[in-house]
Model the fold of this input.
Amino acid sequence: MSIEPTAQTEMASIVRPPATRGASIQDADGWGIITFDATVTETHQKSAEVTTHPVEDGVEVADHVRLLPVGLTITVEQSNTPLVADAYQDRDLDAWEWLRVIMDNKELVKVVTIQRVYENMILTDISQTIGAGDSQKIKPTLRFQEIRVVSSLSVEIPPIRRKPVVRNTGETTKEVGQRQGEGQGGPDGEDEVNPGQQEKGESLLVQIFG
Done:
């Protein structure tokens, strides 16, 4: 399947103005932190992980492919003597210090490049090679990786009303009632006496006292 560029995409490539400044790093709210003088190279990475296990014929192949977080590698330049109006002494060293702070604090940043804007990026690597003519500028290579931010929703579950558990003891309703009424006394509040027990008691007295 081929995907043809739309007219809007073709028009955007024609009217896109040339970049007058390099890539910029902003905080999560869009406030600028660093805008570099120039971008030397940009490497945009988007990849997917495919299962190494056999996939049954006829199943949805997309279920066995996982998109990985996007990556970005840029090489930028910041000079101490640029041809810009906001130039000041040691601005190259200030930019280097900001990069160190962003990485040490694990700041979530937005990176604006020539090709696109990247949200929710983490600076994972800073590398720089200083040459003989680089005493008044820095030319670091920066690597970023996307952090996927998700939101959670908490739902309060009402308490579950449980029915009382009835155990089958084999007793009839009448037997249960009689068992519960034992020891509660007769209608006058006196303990009921089993006639058989009374007779047994009288015969015992006769045996003792004659």
Notes: The first helix runs from residue 7 to 15. The radius of gyration is 42 Å. Residues 8-50+61-146 form a domain with the Pnp Oxidase; Chain A fold (CATH 2.30.110). Confidence is low (pLDDT under 50) at residues 7-14.
